[in-house]
Design a protein that fits this description.
The structure holds two protein chains of two kinds. By secondary structure, chain A is α+β, with helices and mostly antiparallel strands. In chain A, 15% of the residues lie in helices and 24% in strands. Chain A has a two-stranded antiparallel sheet with strand order 1-4. Chain A has a two-stranded antiparallel sheet with strand order 2-3. By secondary structure, chain B is of the alpha+beta class.
């Protein structure tokens, strides 16, 4: 199961801007609520995080040092 | 579809206007639908229309000769773009690209001037919008010229890096990195891309892999 963007429901105003910029269909609007759908091709582009006016979407990165 | 008054009510340019005034303005505007990735405006081109976002998001950016992009602003519903060339008569200051499907409302410069002559109190709204734009851009100039954000991002990455084996590490969003670096979210994306182009890190979906730790340390320590 691949990891998907995290929505904080209490911060989300339901404006739908994240849905409009999501190219892979990982985000949809059900009623007035943003819902995350598990898709294979979410490339973690973070455009949804960039456009959210309320900081309600998180795409956290794990930072690792490559082992040679 | 005609320009909707309900949307114009949320446009800061037209704050405080009544429905009949908004109706007069709406008659002078046109609607344009734009697909994801489509360019609405090209930097340097002659542009005599002011645009407002009815729905969707547009990014405003400049591109360097080497093709590197710096986002200047993210324009959301109600906000305007191409204000500067409308008022100074010069070419478009930056490019504008739809980040998804976007509906924009446009108005020709000559029509905007007619509206301003008929409703001079709008000038105060516009001054407020433009002052906000100056404040935003001044903050971006500060980030890009004095803060050496890339060095700060390198430091954040090194401080938060794990070797992938020693248990879970705290994970960071680009928004959090921006807050830690005292910078704008737009500048962090650019810094990560620059580090990736330099071959120092690799963006691997939700992992940032440090591929050259020594080079990243040098970037962290090098003076501005």
């Amino acid at each position: 199961m691949s990891e998907m963007p995290i929505i904080e429901a209490e911060k989300c105003s339901g404006c739908g801007l994240c849905v409009s910029v999501c190219a892979c269909g990982a985000l949809t609007m059900v009623g007035n609520v943003i819902t995350v759908v598990e898709v294979d091709d979410c490339g973690w582009c973070a455009q949804c995080e960039l456009v959210c006016p309320n900081g309600a979407i998180s795409l956290p990165f794990e930072i690792v040092i490559e082992e040679l | 579809m005609a320009v909707q008054i309900e949307i114009l009510k949320n446009v800061p340019y037209f704050a405080g206007l009544d429905t009949s005034e908004l109706n007069s303005i709406a008659r002078l505007m046109f609607e344009k639908k734009v697909d994801r990735g489509e360019m609405v405006l090209l930097e340097g081109e002659s542009a005599d229309k002011l645009y407002f976002i009815a729905s969707g998001v547009v990014k405003i950016f400049k591109t360097s000769a080497e093709g590197k992009e710096q986002i200047l602003d993210i324009i959301r519903p109600g906000q305007s773009f191409n204000d500067v060339s409308i008022f100074d008569g010069g070419p478009a200051l930056a490019s504008a690209q739809a980040m998804g499907p976007v509906v924009i409302y446009g108005i020709r410069k000559s029509n905007l001037e007619s509206i301003l002559r008929a409703t001079p109190r709008l000038v105060f709204n516009i001054i407020k919008v433009l002052a906000g734009r100056v404040r935003h851009l001044a903050s971006l100039v500060e980030d890009l010229s004095f803060k050496r954000v890339i060095g700060r991002v390198a430091k954040i990455l090194l401080e938060h890096a794990g070797d992938g084996t020693s248990g879970p590490r705290p994970r960071l969003t680009q928004q959090e990195m921006a807050a830690m670096a005292g910078s704008a979210r737009e500048v962090i994306g650019r810094s990560l891309k620059a580090l990736e182009e330099d071959g120092v890190i690799r963006l691997d979906r939700q992992r940032i892999v440090i591929t050259n730790k020594e080079a990243l340390k040098e970037i962290m320590e090098s003076p501005a």
